[in-house]
Design a protein that fits this description.
This protein is an all-alpha fold and 69 residues long. 52% of the residues lie in helices and 0% in strands. The longest helix has 20 residues, at 4-23. The termini are far apart.
């Protein structure tokens, strides 16, 4: 039988999942940058339109994501 802490933890996990899902595709108010903030290369229009608020080119974003692992 789950105790109060287990129920609270399950509730919090469900709320977090709901919040992530609600914000997953939410448009950002920050405009996309025309050039990468790290290397200065041009960010393709298609990438800027697909990912509103993008600030890095694909190559720099790949490096950032690898470093976070």
């Amino acid at each position: 039988m789950p105790d109060e802490i287990d129920r609270d933890q399950e509730f919090n996990e469900q709320r977090l999942e709901d919040m992530i899902e609600q914000n997953r595709f939410k448009s950002t108010a920050t405009p996309s940058l025309p050039n990468c903030r790290l290397c200065g290369k041009s960010i393709p229009d298609k990438r800027r339109q697909t990912l509103p608020g993008v600030t890095t080119c694909i190559e720099c974003q790949t490096v950032l994501e690898r470093c976070q692992r």
